[in-house]
Specification:
The protein is mostly beta strands. The chain contains no helices and eleven strands. Strands 2, 4, 5, 6, 9, 10 and 11 form a seven-stranded mixed beta sheet that branches. The chain has a four-stranded antiparallel beta sheet with strand order 1-3-8-7, with no helix packed on it. The chain is globular.
């Protein structure tokens, strides 16, 4: 059974940092891209960042320079280091596993999400 479990969300003041983790099990995740998406209340889900099996990365423009995606294939883990957080980063953050892409349709497994709230 394939499972993705996010952790690390919480409440932080603007300008602060959080590190999200995604623990994967049930498949050889080193062979797939891992991505982070987010969905704010009342808004559609949006792409945040992706890291391919070979370490290549791509970011949504608004998080470039502030967020860093990484992975540890030996531990089947993916991470999202979020610095200089802004209130507009408030959302439920989801990790996903699948093919490289930004639409969401490329990913066949998703976690349950972790809430990130940034206060002003």
């Amino acid at each position: 059974q394939v499972q993705l479990v996010e952790s690390g969300g919480g409440l932080v003041q603007a300008g602060g940092s959080l590190r999200l983790s995604c623990a994967a099990s049930g498949r050889t995740f080193s062979a797939y891209a891992m991505a982070w998406f987010r969905q704010a209340l009342g808004k559609e889900r949006e792409f945040v960042a992706v890291i391919n099996w070979n370490g290549a990365t791509y970011y949504e423009d608004s998080v470039k320079g502030r967020f860093t995606i990484s992975r540890d294939n030996g531990k089947n883990m993916a991470y999202l280091q979020m610095n200089t957080l802004k209130p507009e980063d408030t959302a439920v953050y989801y990790c996903a596993s699948g093919r490289w892409g930004v639409s969401g349709r490329e990913y066949d497994y998703w976690g349950q999400g972790t809430q990130v709230t940034v206060s002003s």
